[in-house]
């Protein structure tokens, strides 16, 4: 499916544009935002390549990757990234990151709900899962609030910052997902 534009309460998911590179770099180039991720802070040049690759994958004949901009709906400001990648049978993995100066106001929780709406309502998936660092308490909080239950540990899942790191896996099935109402998702 292309193009994706999904809005919930305060946030919109939309396709990435070349003009987004500086705003994406504010997230992927940030040591704080990438502390628990599977990669080290990216240079602006690396972010340019990521955005370009995402734009190409967005128009692939059988699209398997949705790497999307997270924008505040009222201002249009890009404040994060959201990714859903199809894999296996009617299943996908999700990832997300918000600019550190916008943490703690509910954006992460809303992005997860938007990704679940994309996966279940738009793409008709059965299972959506995410892998987080065992130390990533904020990610655990937003995943659990959205109904993704902890289902286990992948040992030595990623090699990052010179060492192997386990991941904790969370998942939700289509029949378990409670679609948020406009009122209940607002914090
Ligand atoms: C994870 C992330 C998206 C959360 O975004 P956010 O906009 O702050 O999320 P919300 O405001 O919706 O909720 C954050 C929750 O984490 C909790 N939290 C934040 N830091 C925490 C910490 N150090 N320990 C425990 N809980 C913490 C908050 O209390 C809040 O939970 P609550 O509402 O139950 O109190 C954001 O921290 C981020 O972008 N991190 C870097 C990238 C990343 O780790 N992505 C996840 C990859 S799996």
Automatic annotation (TrEMBL):
Keyword Signal on entry: no
Keywords, in A-Z order: Acyltransferase, Transferase
Matching InterPro entries: Acyl_CoA_acyltransferase, GNAT_dom, N-acetyltransferase
Domain called N-acetyltransferase: residue spans: 11-180
Spans through the membrane: none
Annotated family: Belongs to the acetyltransferase family. RimJ subfamily.
Protein name: GNAT family protein
Lineage: Bacteria, Bacillati, Actinomycetota, Actinomycetes, Kitasatosporales
């Amino acid at each position: 499916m292309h193009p994706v534009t999904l809005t919930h309460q305060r946030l919109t998911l939309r396709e990435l544009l070349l003009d987004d590179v500086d705003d994406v770099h504010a997230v992927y180039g940030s040591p704080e935002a990438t502390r628990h991720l599977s990669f080290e802070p990216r240079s602006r040049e690396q972010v340019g390549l990521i955005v370009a690759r995402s734009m190409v994958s967005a128009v692939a004949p059988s699209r398997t990757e949705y790497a999307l901009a997270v924008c505040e709906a009222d201002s249009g400001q890009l404040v994060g990234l959201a990714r859903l990648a199809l894999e296996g049978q009617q299943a996908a993995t999700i990832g997300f990151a918000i600019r550190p100066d916008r943490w703690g106001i509910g954006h992460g929780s809303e992005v997860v709900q938007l990704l679940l709406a994309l996966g279940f309502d738009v793409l008709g998936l059965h299972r959506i899962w995410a892998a987080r660092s065992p130390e990533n308490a904020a990610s655990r909080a937003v995943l659990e609030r959205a109904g993704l239950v902890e289902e286990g540990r992948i040992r030595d899942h990623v090699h990052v910052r010179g060492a192997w790191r386990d991941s904790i896996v969370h998942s939700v099935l289509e029949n378990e997902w409670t679609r948020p109402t406009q009122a209940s998702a607002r914090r």
